Every structure is written in structure tokens, then in C-alpha cells.
Amino acid sequence: MGEVSLIPVQVIWAAKESVILIDLEVAAGSTIKEVIEQSGILEQAPEIDLVRNRVGIFGKCHTFESPVAPRDRIEIYRPLTISSAKARRLRARTEPKKR
Q1: How many other C-beta atoms lie within 10 A of the C-beta of residue 27?
Q2: pLDDT tens sequence across 80-90
Q3: Which of 3, 19, 73, 98 is packed most tightly, with the most Cβ within 10 A?
Q4: What is the pTM of this model?
Q5: CATH, domain range 6-94
Q6: What does the pLDDT read at residue 67?
Q7: Domain boundaries, the chain
């Protein structure tokens, strides 16, 4: 039988009040969903809802079926509470005009 090759990865969740960062080793060829489940982060942060939360690697959105590579940082994103367009309008009203 062949040996399973392990690769180092990180899983991160940035809640409003705290950040959870987990370093772990997973089998090469693991998917983002498999890594999240193996990390134990869902037990540490029960507010994570994989139906609503998007995921990515180093700031780029990916699907749960995407494979991970060595030293990838799998990020679980919180849902937006305000649209980016509305946030820009609010900033434009409160920030002084720059010339």
C-alpha cells in the first residue's frame, strides 16, 4: 500500500470579536470542505453556516469542491451586512471631499 502524502494548510474564521486560526496537515488532494470539516472549526464556531458562508483561498473565492495545495489558507467569509454600493455611498457622505 502507498503512503498518504500530507500537506500543511490553515483554516481561518474572522468573527466580529475574535479570529480562529487552525494549522493542520491533510491528505494531498483534499477539498476545501474536507479540510474545514477535519479542522474542527465548525465545533469551535457554531455560528458558521456552510450554506450561507462563502469560502476562499488567500482572498479569492472558491467552491467547496476545490482542491487545496500545500500552505493554502482556507478562509471562511462572513455574510455581508451591507452591500458594497451602500457602504461607498455612506463613506461618500461622511468623508471630506478630496481635491
Answers
A1: 13
A2: 777 778 778 88
A3: 73
A4: 0.78
A5: 3.10.20.30
A6: 97
A7: 6-94
DSSP 67: B
Largest Cα span, the chain:
68
Strand order of the β-sheet with 19-27 is 19-27, 6-14, 73-77, 54-57, 60-62
- Give the other-Cβ count within 10 Å of 76's Cβ: 23
The C-alpha angle with vertex 79 and arms to 75 and 83, in degrees rounded to 5, equals 120
**Phi first, then psi: what are they for 51, rounded to 5°?**
-80, -35
5 residue type, one letter: S
pLDDT tens figures, 27-76: 999 999 999 999 999 999 999 999 999 999 999 999 999 999 999 999 99
- Dist CA 32 CA 53 (whole Å): 13
| Dihedral sign (CA 48, 60, 11, 70) | positive
Other beta carbons within 10 Å of 35? 24
